[in-house]
Amino acid sequence: MLFSAQTGSMFAGFFASIILGRWMEPGEMGRLAFCLSIILVSGLVFELGFSSAGARVLALAENRESERQALGALVLITLVIGIAFALFIAAAAKPIDLIFSKDVRWLLVSTAALSFFQPFQLFIEQSCQGLNQIRRLSVFQLTMSGCYLIGLIALVITHRLTAGTALGAYLAGIGIASGWALLQMQPRFKGARKYIGITLNETRGYGFNLYLARLSGLASSRSDQLAIAYFLSSTTPLGIYAIAQKFSNPISMLGRSLATTRFRAFSRLPRVPARITKWNTAVVFSASVALVIAGPFVLRFVFPKYSEASSLLIPFAAMNLFVGLFQPYNIFLAAHGRGAELRNIVLITGVATVLGLVFAVPGFGIAGAAWTVAASMALDYILHVLYYRKFIRRLERSE
Questions:
Q1: What would the pLDDT profile of 344-372 be if each residue is shown by its tens digit?
Q2: Where are the domains of the chain?
Q3: By CB atoms within 10 Å of each CB, which of 136, 170, 223, 359 scores lowest?
Q4: Which of 193, 159, 146, 167 is nearest to 11 (CA)?
């Protein structure tokens, strides 16, 4: 079900990319990609691990009433985070523009209020994962991507498509989907105070370690765009890079959708079933090969303004192949509360990525960024396998 929903979301995202590629110049696309990177990275900074800790609290809840009270606690926490985040975006817009010189100050200020909804995306996804409510997670993701696509179509029809309005449509889509999901989940605020304390305790250990892992992971995955924005004066290369990246992202989505559905089951299993790893490997490898073979032709046909991006599809196919391969191990370790291991993996990968980008982007431009990220994800996969095997041996000895 989740795979089907994410496939639908993938097509919605693909059509959204067509709209952006057809009606938005590469420079304007670069401004949009830059602002999205700023919002996603800084939004995760404000999250502090509460959503990850909340997912584990929900997974261990014994009855429906406990689940609703825990949800109420998480909603209250996320409300505070959302308000603080929106204020931060408005205040940080000018310093960000001074550092990167990308003329995005008023773009960020105008969408700061809608940024309030950004923390709710991770909260809804983690809550559905913890409760194993795959149907609700599927509809949430479809609603979010569908609203974004409808918003872009409306902007094209009214001749108002810009980086700012596209960013507003993206954030509004999150807000609409989150509002629908919360109505369906029916959080209960009476008695939520108890679960605020439980969530805080869970956050101090497991949640905060996973927060550092997720923060470092997103920082490393978005550091390529930030490095391009910092080292290259024009926003056009960033726009070309972003389109190629969007074009290849469905590969890792295949592995992520399968692993996410197994979160609750993995928490009770001693290892990742062999059938999961075999199926996952076959799917992501086939998708990567298909991208390398057919991708350049499709890219030139669908996005003629971005034909230069075809040379980036090979490193992006490799990058997403490794991201898809480590998803089962990542979800397994998260389900068993191995936040420290995940933190170590992403910190090592993050440092390697940033160091590589510092040398690669000034010398080789966007191609250097793409190959650096591909190599970093290969390292990420190796570390996931090593830490997973180490944890399995520990479990076997304890038995």
A1: 888 888 889 889 999 999 989 999 999 99
A2: 2-394
A3: 359
A4: 146
